[in-house]
Automatic annotation (TrEMBL):
GO terms for biological process: cell adhesion involved in single-species biofilm formation; negative regulation of bacterial-type flagellum-dependent cell motility; phosphorelay signal transduction system. Keywords: Phosphoprotein, Two-component regulatory system. Its cofactor is Mg(2+). It comes from the Bacteria. It comes from Marinobacter vulgaris. Residues 276-392 form the Response regulatory domain. It holds the Pfam family Hpt. This is diguanylate cyclase. The modification 4-aspartylphosphate is found at D325. Residues 432-564 form the GGDEF domain.
Length: 569
């Protein structure tokens, strides 16, 4: 398995290591000159408290960060010296008021520490040699494309020509990006967590073998492998699972059900590798490193170094988890964690401390003040990613239960209503134009009556999937009622909203649902209103609803934009 990050990310990490190395060299110079200033022998000198506090701060930072950048021996030695200096830093040393005996003891200790500091410099140089040539600074890593979050990629591999053509057409309707690949040239240049590979039972073993060698750079599992097959019994399913399939889908393929299955697989995968992480640490280089590693593993990361901005960052970024440094200059991370919990909204936000503190008792005390886990610095990249995955996954699962509708995975009625109000407030604050839409399935009662409730549910889920895939990641979709959906399209005019919803309308009408009574097609109607043109979000929703009923009255299967209340009636 290739465990190296992609070239762009590797360049970025190398550059961060170089920057760390430069800073560490400067800090070691500073430490050495402080050591030279400290009183030697019987020499008397006024208060050394500031120098010792400064040295302690530098050693603490090095102990917490050097290992992350590959300078493990330097970090370990800095930690040993930090521990030795801690009592002197906390209680003051060599002050003019001390009695002679204490001064002598402290002086001895300082001399040993000074000798240790001089050894740190050689540890830095030795590690440089073992890490190879000093990395060059390179501009533009090229991997920072701002792709929409929901580019779901379906790779068709090892299928017959007929099956490939059918799936290419049927799945494109859902907005999936389809590629066809030969097994030998199978490669996965997509975002982790956003790909599914579909293959046949005959070629499963070969495809599974190739996929095994293509796992993502950070070691996260490769894409799920969905296998199509004609035999659907325990033994054949067992054989497929053994040969590497993550999911099975029976042939002949029912396209809406397959789309639903792919959605679910990607969703499950994505839950493992995605999430929003807020990092608060006053060491900017370390934060830049964490950020690069976590972004490379698929997370969205916001990193801040000033504790004063924490509350506004929380409400704007709305992270799934937070990584919090314990010691940040004048501020204590444990107190910041407590302060965050003042707000009921953040009571359940998982907080993970980042600290060089190794004493389990002290860790426990800190945890009692409002965090969930302790990550001891230096944190390895793998450990960081894995911890973030586990914490984000759990946080998102809990959150989903609270805010998402169980049939469709869309936002619940009350949540989308609140989001409409939030977006309305944003429109006013930022003076931008946004739209809201109400979407309703046509003659849905007849679908239920003629084909049963179960088929009705499949149709509802298919529309939910289509909306998710066709709309932008910044759009928000809610299940407003049984077969009625509300959509927020931020920074989007009603003309643009009409264009995209018309395409969705056409794609949905094109989907064929297989039922025992024969193939079924269903259409939808939509009404749109300009969110910023109304006094409140709920007024705009009422207007979109009116436009929807106008569309129903005008023959359904299309999109109407609200103009005036009386005109819409
Ligand atoms: N299968 C299923 N049906 C649902 C669900 N929620 C609501 N419905 C059904 O959706 C149907 C809505 O019917 P109506 O409000 O009469 O509207 P319609 O038949 O779609 O007619 P128009 O909206 O005028 O085109 C009812 O039969 C509800 O039982 C659900 O979760 N699953």
């Amino acid at each position: 398995m290739d465990n190296n990050p992609p070239a762009g990310v590797a360049d970025k990490l190398a550059h961060l290591r170089l920057t760390f190395r430069q800073r560490a060299a400067g800090e070691l110079e500073q430490l050495i000159s402080i050591a030279e200033r400290l009183p030697h022998g019987k020499q008397r000198r006024p208060d050394t408290t500031d120098d010792i506090a400064l040295s302690y701060g530098i050693l603490h930072r090095l102990a917490g960060s050097a290992g992350t950048f590959g300078y493990t021996a330097l970090g370990d030695q800095a930690r040993r010296l930090e521990h030795r200096l801690k009592p002197l830093a906390e209680h003051g040393a060599l002050t003019t008021d001390d009695d002679l005996c204490r001064r002598e003891k402290n002086r001895q200790q300082l001399l040993e520490i000074i000798a240790g500091v001089e050894g740190l410099r050689s540890l830095l140089d030795e590690t440089d040699e073992s890490l190879g040539a000093t990395p060059e600074r390179r501009a533009g890593s090229g991997d920072e494309t701002n792709k929409p979050a929901r580019d779901i990629h379906v790779v068709l591999c090892g299928l017959s020509e007929k099956a490939t053509d059918f799936l290419d057409h049927a799945l494109s309707n859902y907005g999936f990006l389809i590629s066809t690949m030969e097994i030998e040239s199978l490669s996965l240049q997509t975002k982790p967590g956003m790909t599914t590979v579909v293959t046949s039972e005959d070629r499963l073993a070969e495809v599974s073998k190739v996929l095994g060698s293509l796992e993502h750079a950070d070691g996260t599992p490769g894409p799920p492998l969905l296998c199509l097959g004609r035999q659907d019994d325990f033994n054949s399913r067992y054989a497929l699972a053994e040969a590497g399939a993550d999911a099975f889908f029976p042939e002949p393929v029912d396209a809406p059900q397959l789309a639903e299955r792919i959605e679910r697989l990607v969703h499950e995968q994505n839950e493992l590798v995605s999430g929003k992480i807020l990092i608060l640490d006053d060491d900017e280089h370390l934060v830049a490193h964490y950020r690069t590693v976590l972004e490379n593993a698929g997370f969205r990361v916001r990193a801040i170094s000033k504790p004063e901005t924490i509350l506004s960052e929380l409400s704007e970024f709305r992270p799934d988890i937070m990584l919090l440094d314990v010691r940040m200059g004048a501020y204590s991370g444990t107190t910041v964690a407590k302060l965050i919990r003042f707000d009921p909204e953040w009571v359940s936000l998982p907080i993970v401390y980042l600290s060089s503190e190794q004493d389990k008792h002290v860790q426990l005390e800190a945890l009692a003040k409002g965090a969930d886990e302790f990550m001891t610095k230096p944190v390895s990249d793998d450990y960081l990613v894995r911890t973030a995955q586990i914490r984000c996954y759990r946080a998102r699962q809990l959150n989903e239960l609270l805010i998402k509708d169980s049939l469709t995975g869309l936002l619940k009625h009350s949540v989308i209503k609140q989001e409409v109000e939030n977006e309305h407030a944003r429109c006013q604050r930022m003076s931008h134009v946004s739209s809201v839409a109400m979407v309703d399935l046509d003659h849905f009662k007849a679908v239920n009556d003629q084909h049963g409730h179960r088929t009705g549910d499949v149709v509802i889920k298919a529309l939910a999937n289509l909306l998710r895939n066709r709309l932008r990641s910044t759009d928000q979709i809610g299940r407003y009622g049984g077969e009625e959906f509300a959509i927020i399209l931020p920074e989007c005019t009603t003309d643009q909203a009409q264009e995209v919803l018309t395409q969705i309308c056409e794609a949905f009408a094109d989907i064929s649902f297989a039922t025992p009574e024969g193939d079924l097609s269903v259409t939808l109607s939509a009404g749109i209103a300009a969110l910023d043109a109304f006094a409140s979000g709920s007024d705009a929703l009422d207007a979109a609803d009116q436009a929807l009923y106008e569309r129903k009255a005008a023959g359904r299967n299309g999109v109407t934009v609200f103009t005036r209340f009386d005109a819409a009636l």
